[in-house]
Design brief:
The complex is a heterodimer. By secondary structure, chain A is α/β, with parallel strands linked by helices. Chain A contains 20 helices and 19 strands. A 6-stranded mixed β-sheet of chain A has the order 6-7-8-3-9-10, sandwiched between helices. Chain A has a 6-stranded mixed β-sheet with strand order 15-16-17-13-18-19, with helices on both faces. Chain B has 10 helices and 6 strands. Chain B is flat and about 65 Å long. At the A-B interface, α3, α4, α5, α12 and β15 of A face α6, α7, α8 and β3 of B.
Chain lengths: 554, 325
C-alpha cells in the first residue's frame, strides 16, 4: 500500500463546511487512479492532504490519518513527503521557481543533499525520459505553456518518487500537449510502476489510461471503482461527469459505456453500426440524422462561412494582419478574418499558434505591424484569468447592476469577489468586460471575444457558459472563443477557425472542422469517424438510431 | 505574451554566455574595477566602447543601447549638480554671485569636466551591470554560494526568477484593466484598489511558489547540503563527503565541469583588464586631474592603454566555436 486515507476530515481555517469529510481509501503501488468530481468538491484538497500541504501549509482542522509511503502526514511535513511524492498543479508558472530548466530539475535533488554528480545524472535521466533534453539550457520564462508543464513534471519526477499527484495538469494545454502528457503518465505508470493520482475534468482524455476512478462529492468519496463501474455510477447519479462517449452510448441505448474511442468503436462494430472497412468516411451532412434544430444551426454556420457576402454589416474584419516582434518571430502572419453579427466562432490551435494575440488585435489591445482591423462597434475581450479583473472588495463595485443581472450575479452584489467560485468569478469578469447598456459603459459590445474561458471549469459550468454564449449570438452579438476544448467549441460555436504558426489554416463550419481531425475533434466525432457531421452526443445518438446514415463509416 | 521591458538572463549563442557563470561574473567585476580605477576620460571612453562592443558580440547590444540612453538621463543631473556644488576649479565661466551660506556661486569648467567623468563612470557601471545580468546565468552563479548558505543562495535565485514572473503578472493585470469599458482606476479610491490588487496578487503568487518550494524540499535543504563533486557508487568506502547522510555510498568519481576555451579566454581577459588598469594608473599613462586645472595625460602610452583595454575585452569574443548549447 503506497497511499492510504483513513477517516480523514478537514476544514480550511474559518470554513464551516468540511473540504474533506470522512474520506477513506487505499492505493496500491502501480495503480493509475483518476479523481473525478465537480469543481469545489474536494479533489484538490485531497491531493494537498496526500502530500502534506494539508494541514502543514494551509492550517485548519484535520482529523484521521493519511499515510504516504509508510509516513504519517501529521508527523512528516511536505518537504519530507516530497521525497516520495512528486506533485504537479494546474498552473505551471507557479511551479517553476528557478531561471533555467537545468536548475529547475536540479533543485529537488540538491535540496535533498545529492552530490553534484548524482544531480547531473538525475537531471539527464529525467530530461531524456520526458523528452525535454533540448530544453535543459533554456530559460524557464521563455518556455511555452506545454513546455513549462513538462518541465514542472520533470522537476516533480527528478527524485524518482513512488507516487505522482497531479491536479488538472492538462487544463492549460492544447489537445496535442494534453494527450502527450497523459501518454507520458501512462508510460511512467507502466514502465516504472509509478503510482499516479490524477484529478481531471476532461475525463474522456484519461479514462482509458486509468485503473481506478475515485469520485468526490461534497468532500466525500461518492464512488470508488474501475472506469466501467464509474461510468455506470455517473450515468445514474451525476450525469455531468459522464464522458461524451458514455453519454452518446447512454442516449443511443448501447452498452457497455465506453472508456475510450477504441472501445466505443469496437462496440459499435459488434452491433453492426460500423463497417469493417478502413476507408475514410464519406457521409455527406445531408445524409446525417442530426436534429432539425442542430442542422439549422450548422446550416446557418455554413451559410455564414460560405456565403458571407449576403450579410449586411460585418462585426469584425481583419485584413492581412501581421504581428511581428522586434528581434523575434512573427506571431500573426497575414490573418484575414471576417465575423458577422450573430456568428459564433471557435478559434482553435496549439499553444503559441497566435490565438490570444489575434483576440488582442480584435479588441484593440495591440496594433498590427501590418494590415488592418475594422470593428463595427465595441469589442469586449475576456482574458484568460478572471481574477485579474477583480480589484474591489464588493461585487457591486466591479460592474453595474444591469451587467450583474445579465450574468445572474445580482444576488451576490454584496459579496467579496475573492469568495466567489471559479465559475462565478468567470461570470463576474464577463459582466465587467461586457459592461452595462449605458453610454458611459461603452454600450453593448458588438463582438464578445473570450480567451480560454473554460480553464479549470467542470462540465456543468462549461455547459452553462456555452448556453450563455449561444444566447448572446442569438441576440445578434458576434462571439469569438479561443479554446483548446473541442467539446466546448462544438457546444457553443457554429464556425471554427484553426490557427497554426500565426496563420489561418482552416476556416469552416464547426461540423466540418471538428469532425475530421485526430486532435481538434470531439469524442463523438472520433467515435463515429466524423459521420454526418455529428459533434455532440445528442447528435451522435440520433445518428445511431438511423444506422443507414452510418453506412460506409469505418 | 512577451515581456520586453525587463532585463533578465537568456541563454544566447555567444562566447560570454558559453562561459561558466563564475568566470563571467569575475570578468564583469574586473571591468567594474577598471571603471573605478581609471579617471582618464580617454581610457574611460575606450572602456565604454569596449563594453558596448562586448554587448553587441554577446547579442545584447540593443538592451545595452537602452541602458546607455537611461545613463545619459542619469548623467546630465550628475554634471549639473557637480557644477553647482563644486567650489573648486579656476576657470570660471559663469558667476551666480553670493549664495549666502553656500558661498560664491562661481561655475567652473573644471567642475563640468569632473562631473562628466563621474557621469561616464556611472554610465560604465550601468552598462557593465546590464551586460552581466543579461549574459551571466544567475542560477549557476548562485549555486556556487549554496555550499556556504543553501537557503540564502536559493532565495536569491528565487528572487531573480520572480522578477520576470511578477512583471508578467503586473502586465496581465494592467491588460485586464484596459479591457474594461470604464477606467476602474479613476480617482484615488480606484488607484488604491488597483494597487491593493497588485500587491494581493503578488502575495498569492508568493504563497503558491512557497508551496512548490516546500514540496521540493526547501525545509530540509539545510539537512542535506550539496557536497563536493563526487558520485558514490555501491560497494566502496564512504569518505570525502560532507553534509547530509542520505548520499549514496561508493567509490568517488570526479565529475567536475571541464574548463572550456571560453572560460580560459575570459579568465585571461580578466587578468589583462585588471593589469592594464593598474598599469595605466601607476605608470601615469592614464593620469587625470580635474582641479584646480584640468590636466589629462594624452600620449602614446595612453593610446596603447586604450587599445589594450579594447583588445583585452573583445578578443575573447573572436573565437565562436562551441558557443551554442
Amino acid at each position: 500500500m503506497i497511499l492510504s486515507f483513513d477517516r480523514v476530515s478537514y476544514h480550511y481555517p474559518g470554513a464551516e463546511t468540511p473540504a474533506l469529510d470522512d474520506v477513506s481509501f487505499e492505493l496500491q503501488a502501480g495503480e493509475f487512479c483518476l479523481l473525478a468530481g465537480l469543481s469545489g468538491h474536494g479533489k484538490t484538497t485531497l491531493l494537498h492532504a496526500a502530500c502534506g500541504l494539508v494541514p502543514h501549509f494551509h492550517g485548519g482542522t484535520f482529523a484521521g490519518t493519511v499515510t504516504l509511503a509508510g509516513l504519517d502526514t501529521r508527523e512528516h511535513g511536505p518537504a519530507h513527503l516530497g521525497g516520495h511524492a512528486g506533485v504537479l498543479f494546474q498552473d505551471p508558472e507557479t511551479q517553476l521557481v528557478m531561471s533555467s530548466v537545468r536548475a529547475e530539475l536540479s533543485l529537488a535533488l540538491e535540496s535533498r543533499g545529492q552530490g553534484n554528480a548524482a544531480v547531473a545524472r538525475g537531471v539527464e535521466e529525467v530530461a531524456l525520459a520526458l523528452g525535454i533534453d533540448a530544453l535543459l539550457d533554456r530559460s524557464t520564462h521563455e518556455l511555452s505553456g506545454g513546455e513549462k508543464q513538462r518541465v514542472a513534471l520533470g522537476a516533480a519526477l527528478a527524485g524518482r518518487p513512488k507516487v505522482v499527484l497531479l491536479d488538472e495538469p492538462t487544463s492549460q494545454l492544447d489537445p496535442v500537449a494534453g494527450d502527450e502528457l497523459i501518454g507520458l503518465l501512462r508510460r511512467l505508470n507502466e514502465e516504472w510502476e509509478t503510482t499516479i493520482v490524477l484529478a481531471e475534468h476532461r475525463l474522456e482524455r484519461c479514462l482509458g489510461a486509468a485503473d481506478r476512478v475515485i469520485s468526490m462529492e461534497a468532500g466525500r468519496v461518492a464512488h470508488d471503482g474501475d472506469p466501467q463501474s464509474f461510468l455506470k455510477w455517473a450515468a445514474q447519479n451525476e450525469p455531468s461527469l459522464q464522458t461524451p462517449g458514455a453519454k452518446l452510448f447512454a442516449l443511443a441505448g448501447l452498452h457497455p459505456a465506453p472508456t475510450g474511442v477504441k472501445q466505443a468503436r469496437g462496440t459499435l462494430r459488434a452491433h453492426g453500426l460500423l463497417s469493417e472497412e478502413v476507408d475514410p468516411p464519406n457521409v455527406s451532412p445531408s445524409a446525417s440524422a442530426v436534429g432539425e434544430a442542430d442542422r439549422a444551426g450548422r446550416a446557418r454556420g455554413l451559410r455564414s462561412v460560405l456565403g458571407r457576402r449576403e450579410s449586411v454589416s460585418t462585426a469584425l474584419r481583419m485584413k492581412g494582419v501581421w504581428h511581428e516582434l522586434r528581434d523575434g518571430p512573427a506571431i500573426l502572419r497575414g490573418v484575414d478574418l471576417k465575423v458577422e453579427p450573430g456568428e459564433s466562432v471557435a478559434l482553435m490551435g496549439r499553444n503559441g499558434a497566435g490565438k490570444s494575440t489575434l483576440l488582442r488585435h480584435a479588441a484593440g489591445l495591440m496594433e498590427p505591424t501590418r494590415g488592418r482591423v475594422e470593428r463595427a462597434g465595441r469589442v469586449a475581450l475576456l482574458l484568460q484569468n478572471p481574477g485579474d479583473y477583480l480589484i474591489h472588495e464588493r461585487v457591486a463595485e466591479e460592474a453595474s447592476p444591469a451587467a450583474l443581472a445579465a450574468v445572474g450575479l445580482a444576488e451576490m452584489a454584496e459579496r467579496n469577489p475573492k469568495d466567489l467560485s471559479g465559475g462565478e468569478r468567470q461570470r463576474l469578469a464577463l459582466a465587467i468586460v461586457t459592461g452595462g447598456e449605458g453610454e458611459e459603459a461603452g454600450g453593448t459590445p458588438i463582438v464578445l471575444a473570450l480567451d480560454e474561458p473554460t480553464r479549470g471549469m467542470d462540465r456543468g459550468a462549461k455547459a452553462e457558459l456555452a448556453r450563455d454564449l449561444r444566447r448572446r449570438a442569438g441576440q445578434g452579438q458576434a462571439v469569438i472563443v479561443a479554446t483548446h476544448d473541442p467539446e466546448f467549441a462544438a457546444a457553443c460555436a457554429n464556425r471554427a477557425v484553426l490557427l497554426a504558426d500565426g496563420r489561418v489554416i482552416a476556416d469552416g463550419s464547426a461540423a466540418e472542422l471538428l469532425t475530421g481531425g485526430w486532435y481538434f475533434a470531439t469524442e463523438t466525432a472520433r467515435i463515429l469517424g466524423g459521420a454526418g457531421g455529428a459533434l455532440l452526443p445528442e447528435e451522435g445518438a440520433e445518428l445511431l438510431r438511423v444506422p443507414a446514415a452510418l453506412e460506409g463509416v469505418a | 505574451m512577451r515581456n520586453t521591458r525587463l532585463l533578465f538572463y537568456r541563454r544566447l549563442a555567444s562566447p560570454l554566455h558559453a562561459t561558466r557563470a563564475g568566470v563571467g561574473a569575475i570578468w564583469a567585476l574586473a571591468l567594474t574595477a577598471a571603471a573605478l580605477i581609471l579617471y582618464n576620460p580617454l581610457a574611460l571612453a575606450a572602456l565604454a566602447l569596449a563594453v558596448l562592443g562586448a554587448g553587441a558580440c554577446a547579442g545584447v547590444g540593443r538592451q545595452l543601447a537602452g541602458t546607455l540612453r537611461t545613463a545619459l538621463i542619469v548623467g546630465l543631473p550628475i554634471v549639473a549638480i557637480n557644477v553647482l556644488a563644486s567650489r573648486e576649479g579656476l576657470t570660471v565661466f559663469a558667476r551666480l554671485g553670493d549664495l549666502g551660506p553656500f558661498g560664491q556661486g562661481d561655475l567652473t569648467v573644471e567642475a563640468v569636466v569632473y562631473g562628466a567623468v563621474i557621469a561616464l563612470k556611472v554610465t560604465l557601471l550601468m552598462l557593465i551591470t546590464t551586460l552581466a545580468s543579461l549574459a551571466v546565468d544567475p542560477d549557476e552563479l548562485l549555486r556556487g554560494f549554496r555550499r556556504f548558505s543553501f537557503r540564502s543562495a536559493l532565495t536569491a535565485s528565487l528572487a531573480t526568477r520572480m522578477i520576470p514572473v511578477l512583471g508578467a503578472d503586473a502586465q496581465r493585470l494592467a491588460e485586464a484593466q484596459r479591457t474594461r469599458p470604464e477606467d476602474p482606476a479613476r480617482g484615488v479610491r480606484g488607484r488604491v484598489a488597483l494597487l491593493s490588487a497588485i500587491v494581493g496578487g503578488s502575495l498569492e503568487r508568493a504563497m503558491e511558489v512557497a508551496a512548490t518550494l516546500e514540496l521540493r524540499g526547501f525545509a530540509v535543504a539545510a539537512e542535506g547540503r550539496p557536497g563536493p563533486r563526487r558520485l558514490r557508487l555501491p560497494g566502496s568506502r564512504a569518505g570525502g563527503s560532507r553534509g547530509g547522510g542520505s548520499r549514496p555510498r561508493g567509490s568517488a568519481i570526479r565529475v567536475g565541469r571541464p574548463w572550456s576555451r571560453h572560460d580560459l579566454a575570459f579568465l585571461c581577459s580578466t587578468f589583462a583588464v585588471i593589469a592594464l588598469a593598474l598599469a595605466g594608473r601607476l605608470s601615469g599613462a592614464a593620469s587625470f586631474e580635474a582641479y584646480p586645472l584640468v590636466k589629462m595625460q594624452i600620449d602614446a602610452g595612453t593610446f596603447v592603454l586604450c587599445a589594450g583595454l579594447i583588445a583585452a575585452i573583445l578578443l575573447p569574443f573572436v573565437d565562436r566555436r562551441g558557443i551554442d548549447r
